[in-house]
Every structure is written in structure tokens, then in C-alpha cells.
Amino acid sequence: MRRWGVAVGAVGAVAGTALLPLLASGWAGARAERALAARIAGTTAAYVALVTPAASGSKDYDLPHLLVEAGALARLPGWTSNLEVYRGTAPLVHATAGSLGVATLSALRRQDGVLWSIGAKDVMAFNGKPGVGSIECRRATTHQEPVVSWKFAKAASYGLVAIVIVLTSAAYVLAHLSYVSPTPIDISRNFIVLIQAGDLGGAYVLTDQKAAVGSTLADFEANIRYQLAIDVFPINRPIKLIGTQGGFQSYGNRLRRWVTGRKVDPDQVNVDYFVGLPFEVSLRSNDRGEWRIIYFQSHAM
Q1: Tell me: the pLDDT tens digits for 126-175?
Q2: What whole-number distance in Å separates Cα of residue 31 and Cα of residue 33?
Q3: Phi, psi (5° rounding) for residue 295?
């Protein structure tokens, strides 16, 4: 279970890493949209307050002029239906828009600035004349509003699809790509190096010391001399790796063995060299992952 947890955690880490840029871009986009909404709302409120005169003998706005200026906003180039101007709680640009809540209006007046409301999707800016009248500009939630959320969701979905494609491709490659353990190759090469140096005792330690290689050091030496046609030690023949045979294992198979707690190495691998003549070394691994040479022979090409 611990190995499964490590594997699942690794996959989760890969997916999370891939999603981090999407989350960061979505957060940055939301901040940019919020700042833009606040700027539009505040600018519109200041503009209406500037161009609309006060009513005669009052600190309130002149209502006819206020209606004209609010209506004119809808005809400005670049105007969108996401803005609404309120006098008190009544909408002026879109007659069918909902009234502004009294609590929201009070909050705007207390804050005397920008207020986010309704799940942080709407922004209102207060810029009214003191005492009687007030104007609020609202970036209203419409069917056009969730642009950043939609773009982020779309980008996130593309990112998830990309992650699935990458993981699927990686799984396919791992399932078909052959894994060759370097350990039996290193041991077998070291075995030949020791033999050529005349250190037969050191080479004998690398074997299972059974009949196939020689039950005694003397039997082992006789077998080596016969197979490699050696009369006098040391020798210095070039050692060329030809390849490996048996014990085919894909990266995916090795990973499954590791995850399920089984021995990851194959039971037997044959390593072929050319040492003046073709020479094959067979190695077997035990349950502890330890490799021993169990057989060797020279052979025809």
C-alpha cells in the first residue's frame, strides 16, 4: 500500500504541476478583471457627477439632466450593457434592471469608494452628492460577465486533456520500451576483467560456485581456460558487448512489480561479449536482487 501511495502521489504531483500555470493564469485574469471593473465603475460615477448639474435650490442632482446623461452613456462608443447607473436605488440606463438594495446603497455610502458584492462578481462605485442624492455605477452580472471564468475553465479543460494525453502516451511508451538492468552487465564485464587480470579468485566470488561454473576454484580455472582458450595469465583482449538475451522487461512491467512489492529484476539474463571469441555469461538474481553468475561458455557467432 505504501508503494501504491507513492505512485499515486507521483501522478498527482505531475498533474498538479501541470495545472499550476492554469491556476495562476486564472487568478491573474480574475485580478485584472476586478481592477478593470472598479476603474470603469469609478470613472463612470465621476463622469456623471461632473456633467450633471445640481437641482435648483438643492444638493441633489437635477433629475432630467441626470436621465439624459445616464441614457447618453448607452450610446457612447465601446459602451456595454454591463454598466448601470442608479439614482438612489432606481436604475436609470435600463428601466427593467432590478433596484439597488438599500443595504448595498448604505454600504457604498459608508465605504465612500468601491464595493464588491454578489459573490465578488459585481462592483459598485459611490460618487454621489452629499446629503440628498447619490449615484452608483454597477458592473452588473449578465450572460456576458463570466468571461474570465469561462476562459479559465476552457484552459483548465484543455490542460486536463493535455495531461491525460501525456500520461497515456507515457504509459504506452513505458509498456513497450525495454528495460535492461545495468547490474548484470556490470557484473559480467567485471568478471571478464578479473579473469584477464589473472584474479581468478575474485572472479570466482561472482559466481554461484556450483557445478556449471566449477564446484571448486581449480575446476573453475580449468573451465575458464578451456572456454576462453587461455594458456597464460594475464591477458589483454578487447572486451566488446554484443547484447543481452532473455529476461525481457518493459519499464511499465518493472514499475508494476515495484508498486506491488514484487522483485523488480528478471530471474535470469544472458550477456554476450566478444573477447577474442564470442563469450556468453548467464546470471541469475535472487529475491534480494543479488546477481550471481551461474554459467558461461564460448560459442560460434
Answers
A1: 555 543 344 555 544 433 344 445 555 666 677 777 777 877 777 777 66
A2: 5
A3: -165, 150
- Cα separation values, 270 from 231, 237, 299, Å: 26, 21, 13
pLDDT at 175: 66
Dihedral (Cα; 211, 214, 219, 222), 10-degree rounding: 120
Query: Residue 205 has what pLDDT?
Result: 96
Q: Find all residues with CB under 8 Å of 173, minimum gap 6, and list them.
A: 251
Record the cell numbers describing residue 210, joined without a space: 556450483
Query: Which of 35-49, 83-97, 118-132, 176-190 shows the lowest mean pLDDT across its residues?
Result: 118-132
CA distance linking residue 94 with residue 33, whole number of Å: 23
Note the pLDDT of residue 161: 75
Q: Where are the domains positioned within the chain?
A: 2-148, 182-298
Q: Are 115 and 124 in contact (CB under 8 A)?
A: yes
CA distances from 107 to 89, 120, 142 (A): 13, 15, 23
294 pLDDT tier (thresholds 50, 70, 90) = very high
pLDDT at 6 over 70: no
* Domain range 182-298, its CATH number among 3.10.450, 1.10.357, 3.40.50, 3.60.21: 3.10.450
Residue 21 CA, chain-centre distance (Å), reads 9
Q: In this predicted structure, what is the pLDDT of residue 143? A: 37
- Strand pairing report for 278-285 and 268-274: antiparallel
Q: At what angle do helices 147-176 and 2-51 cross, to 10 degrees?
A: 160
CB–CB of 275/239 below 8 Å? Answer: yes
Residues 6+ apart with CB under 8 A from 102: 89
Cα torsion at 154, 155, 159, 160 (round to 10°)?
-30
